[in-house]
Design goal:
The protein has 252 residues and is mostly helical. It has 13 helices and 2 strands. Helix 2 crosses helix 3, helix 3 runs antiparallel to helix 5 and helix 8 crosses helix 9. Bound molecules: adenosine-5'-triphosphate (ATP) and magnesium ion (MG).
């Protein structure tokens, strides 16, 4: 049997392998096992090969992780700027395994300048959260995304407050016009659904309001079935008419 080609059989440090920017890599590893270190090393190696800091984008899920990565990268580059030749040679060897004796002086000098370059680049090296990235994309391409160029991001707490306000407004509308269509729908649903299901209905209306509004627009354009089409109900008929029909059909 031929032994499979593994990281161990190649005697390559897996962390160093995963930090090779020429490879496309997916890393899953335990907490505290060196994932952030690997990512920071990857960025440092990209910068070492002369990639423009502004061409690098790192995306994290939390703000804390973005701050951590940025702090550690600048910490590392800052140390390089101050290292003597032998120590810097050793550090670069640890980073990518290059022969420490054959590192050119110009490479050492370039490594020492990375800190300043990364800081000075306009627009800079971007280490940001997924949310920040998406927001930046929407700000840049609002027309393409179909959003207002002056859109604001709704924070969770503000969204909850708006949702509460909307439900209070609904209750006010019901009280203001107790015989109106909103009140009739509200009273029917309150009577038919228990509290939890009623709340869940309102939540669904909120969560899927985009789809709902698109459907209403499509109905106006005649390109989507109306609720009456879907339920095959006759909009002209009411409870009284149904009852009269029913009674008329009964043999006394
Ligand atoms: N190859 C290594 N040898 C020794 N120490 C290392 C090595 N790689 C990382 N470390 C150290 O181990 C600690 C944890 O590393 P790191 O923060 O990169 O892990 P992580 O997988 O990102 O952790 P977390 O799951 O908490 O995000 C750090 O102090 C780091 O300096
Ligand atoms: Mg980490």
């Amino acid at each position: 049997m031929i032994a499979p080609l593994t990281v161990d059989s190649l005697r390559i440090d897996p962390q160093r392998l995963a930090a090779d920017p020429a490879l496309s890599v997916f890393v899953a590893a335990n907490a505290g096992s060196g994932k952030t270190t690997t990512l920071v090393n990857r960025v440092a190696r990209l910068l070492l090969t002369g990639v423009e800091p502004g061409a690098i984008l790192c995306v994290t899920y939390t703000k804390a992780a973005a701050a951590e990565m940025q702090g550690r990268l600048f910490d590392q580059l800052g140390k390089w700027a101050l290292m003597g030749d032998p120590e810097l040679r050793r550090t670069l060897f640890d980073l990518d395994g290059r022969d420490p004796e054959r590192i050119a002086d110009t490479t050492l000098a370039a490594a020492r300048r990375l800190f300043a370059r990364a800081l000075e680049t306009p627009g800079g090296l971007k280490i940001q959260t997924l949310h920040a990235l998406c927001e930046a994309l929407l700000r840049r391409f609002p027309l393409e995304a179909g959003v207002s160029p002056r859109f604001e991001v709704l924070e969770d707490a503000r969204a909850r407050a708006l949702s509460r306000q909307a439900r209070e407004d609904l209750a006010d509308a019901v009280l203001a016009d107790p015989e109106g269509p909103v009140a009739r729908a509200f009273n029917t649903l309150v009577a038919t659904l228990d509290h939890a299901r009623f709340e869940s209905l309102l939540q669904q209306l909120e969560d899927r309001r985009g789809e709902l509004l698109a459907w209403l627009d499509a109905i106006d354009e005649g390109t989507a079935p109306t609720p009456f089409d879907l339920t095959r109900a006759d909009p002209a008929r009411n409870e009284a008419a149904l009852e009269a029909d029913f009674l008329a059909g009964i043999d006394p």
